[in-house]
Amino acid sequence: MSLGRLKLGKISIVLFLTVLIWVWADLALDETPAAYPALIEVSPTTDPKLWVSFARMASVEAKVTLSGPHSGFTSLEKRLRRSSGGSRRLRFVFEASAEGMASPGEYSLGLLGFLQKDRDRRRLGLKVKSCEPEVVDVNVVGLVEKTVSVECYDSDGVPLKAESIEPPRVKMYVPENFRTARVELTLREIEQARRTALRKHPFILLYGSQRRVCSETVLVKLAAEQTPLGEQTVTGARLGIMMSVNLQGKYRVELTNLPEVLSPIKIRSSSAAKQAYESQRYQVILEVDDDDLKVPESRRELIYNFADEFIASDQIKLDQPAVEARFKLVPLPGESP
């Protein structure tokens, strides 16, 4: 063996041992940086017969403290920069069946044990050291397959008048009390649907803005664009009071917020609808019940007396929160309370 080869072999061994020492040192000296913000989301592949949520929310926020080698955190930070534009927030996916929660009921999830099973972090040599909160509630609700009617809305949740929806009903898994599904159209889709039918997937909207999308599609055709309703204000409103025969002639209604009850009314309407509304005998109506005798002061929303024909043709609508009347029943002279 030549002297050169011997020296080269020694150098290689030294380099190998040096690298090994550095790797061992990196693994031996675990770091524990500041806690990471984390988002735990319900898996979208959950059984369609179940609605899984964290207290009726699709996700839950947490703070997660990791420990591990410097190289693992370096790799993690690179991944986070690529996937979330520099955010330090970790993401975890919760699959109920994998945690033994495949039946309807209420469960408690030990978050630390769940997070420690995450494979992505373990591949980097990182361990979940602690988390906050330690426990989260998991709700699993059974859904039933039903045929529900389909309604149309814009992206702000405002109902749209459809000329046709075919088919008008679809079959999907929904909570027992649900009767309708919806399709949602953007401004561009609304313009398109006024010209030709548009194919969309209906969905139901659960608590926390969770969506459950139907596998079927429907064709939505909107009616031709109507003249936009103008912003109008009706002043000098007249109040009508509807009282049961048991109270008539025995009690009078004393309103404690009369100026608010008779305040100007903001509406959106066509000119004809506004004129018809102003010509009504009463613009607002208060209903008084026998049970109002049981409380010192009653509260009830006013009824806005729009003409049925203009409501049916979408030519008038209230453009403010309904006013709540506050009132009490006062016995007339000679009558006992």
Multimer state: single chain
As laid out across the biggest beta sheet, the strand order is: 4-1-3-6
Q: Given the structure, what is the number of helices?
A: 8
**First and last CA, distance:** 121 Å
State the total count of DSSP E strands: 24
What is the radius of gyration?
33 Å
**Averaged pLDDT:** 87
Shape type = elongated
Number of separate structural domains: 3
Structural class: alpha+beta
Q: Kindly state the percentage of residues in helix.
A: 10-25%
Low-confidence stretches: none
* Beta content: 35-45%
Describe, in plain words, how this protein is organized in 3D.
The protein has 337 residues and is of the alpha+beta class. The chain has helices at 3-28, 70-84, 111-116, 119-123, 187-195, 258-261, 271-278, 308-312; strands at 36-42, 50-53, 59-67, 90-94, 105-110, 127-132, 135-142, 144-154, 162-166, 169-174, 180-185, 198-200, 203-206, 210-213, 218-222, 230-234, 239-243, 251-255, 265-269, 284-288, 298-301, 303-304, 316-318, 324-331. A hairpin with a 3-residue loop joins strand 13 (203-206) and strand 14 (210-213). The longest helix has 26 residues, at 3-28. The protein starts with a helix and ends in a 6-residue tail after the last strand.
Give a nutshell description of this structure.
Helix content is 23%, strand content 39%.
